[in-house]
Amino acid sequence: MxxxxxxxxxxxxxxxxxxxxxxxxxxxxxxxxxxxRARRWMAQWSELQAWMFPLRWFRENLGxxxxxxxxxxxxxxxxTYERTGASVMGRRMFDAGELAWPEEAPFHTPVFVLTHTGRxxxxxxxxxxxxxxxxxxxxxxxxxxxxxxxxxxxxxGGAETIxxxxxxxxxxxFSITLAPVLLGTGIRLFDHVDPDRLTLTQSRTDGSARVTHxxxxxxxx
Length: 221
Fold this sequence. Notes:
It is a single chain. It contains 7 helices and 11 strands. A hairpin with a 4-residue loop joins strand 10 (about 200-205) and strand 11 (about 210-220). The longest helix has 13 residues, at about 35-50. It is globular. About 30% of the residues lie in helices and about 30% in strands. The chain has a 9-stranded mixed beta sheet, sandwiched between helices. By secondary structure, it is α/β, with parallel strands linked by helices.
């Protein structure tokens, strides 16, 4: 089939791709502003993702106005977006995004949401339509490949969804943006992945003043 299956995430120096697990309704609800767990989660997440906020592409994609920084980080972020023809995500990530994303969700392609509960497709302004898949990761990937055409499929997250695709040997490539942040605790990217089933080859390294981008190809042992 044309196109690759990949994921791209930011990771702290001590190996976490997200802060400690906190219910999405706590983090993203109005009540969460007064909850210390939510404030801590948001502060840590903001520190982890801080490299993206000044980027020209990030500001354009979220409709935050003109301007912003260009350079290697911006080029990589834009290239990741442009190569993606469809995305797959877990229900928890969707639930958080439904509360946090602007009306024009930042994907602009079909998104396939893994869930146990069916729901009609949800179309948003700007070209994003969420489709809800109840029959597993392979079914979601097949539908995403068909929607992506000759572009790539991104496994958007969260960690559990990425781990399932990695452990099933369905990932071709991934990129980790290593941020100079220590979280101490949180959600690890490679928990529950069987290391005896995968072989990784580092294919690219890109650096900037803020972060280091590491790209790996993946094959089954």
